[in-house]
Specification:
It is built from 2 helices and 7 strands, in the order E-E-E-E-H-E-E-E-H. By secondary structure, the chain is an alpha+beta fold. It has one domain (7-97). The strands form 2 sheets. A 4-stranded antiparallel β-sheet has the order 3-2-5-6, with no helix packed on it. A hairpin with a 4-residue loop joins strand 2 (22-23) and strand 3. The longest helix is centred in the last third of the chain and has 22 residues, at 76-97.
Length: 98
């Protein structure tokens, strides 16, 4: 993990509302965690992997969380730059094909 300003740890479960859900076995809140350090990432992982994520869409039965998606947080400037590049990319291709 590089010189990131933080990390997002996301449960890879096919359901909406992951951020508002909870894990059934340990009542750990949130299928999406925003943390600041690699140590915090390591602390969050065991609370999510191998547990059952319950959301509004899954009902009380929930779905198993077998994998996590961990990404470095981008600074605001980088995010805006990426957003602008994506917008320009799709504008260009929409003019070519539509």
């Amino acid at each position: 993990m590089g010189n990131a300003t933080g990390y997002a740890v996301k449960a890879q479960v096919h359901t909406g509302g992951r951020g508002l859900g909870y894990f059934k076995e340990n009542n750990f809140k949130g299928g999406v965690q925003i943390v600041n350090t690699p140590d915090q990432v390591r602390q969050v992982i065991p609370n999510m992997v191998g547990k059952t994520l319950v959301t509004k869409q899954t009902g009380e039965k929930g779905l198993p969380c077998k994998t996590l998606f961990i990404v470095e947080k981008l600074g605001k400037y980088k995010f805006l730059k990426l957003k602008t590049l994506l917008f320009e990319y799709f504008q260009f291709y929409s003019k070519l094909f539509f």
